[in-house]
Amino acid sequence: MEEELLEEPIYLMSIKPQYARAIFAGRKKYELRRLKGVPPIEEGSVIVVYVSGKIKSIVGEFRAGRVIQATPEKVWSIASTPGSGVGEDAWNYIKGAGRAMAIEVLEAVMYERPVTLEEIRRVIPGWNPPFSYKRLMEGDPLLELIISRLRSGLRGRR
Description:
about 160 residues; alpha+beta; Archaeosine Trna-guanine Transglycosylase, Chain: A, domain 4; about 25% helix
């Protein structure tokens, strides 16, 4: 039986609450990541946002626009322009990495309601969010049982 491919790549990304708020308020234009042991994200991918910290919930998504993969210095020079919403704390995070990535945030939308870690674990016992991000493949229980339902509520809101 042939595995059906998703229309677009979908990733689940853990983001701290203050940065998630800035993304969904339209103030943060790039999300920065260290590239070590994880494949880079492709342009056009859907990034499902899991807010870490005290929130511990899947709250929404955005589309990856331009994706810059380079040295931390090059990524910083592109992503930290005035009005980008990328602050010094992002530089402190990526500096010293061999490679870094900046993901342009496009079409950020919140789901009708967040889904908490507790709720996810009721459906998928023992589930843990990724430390940084991970690609969700067809058949992944999180994608099939939870995210597909959240995304269906977005139809007509984009």
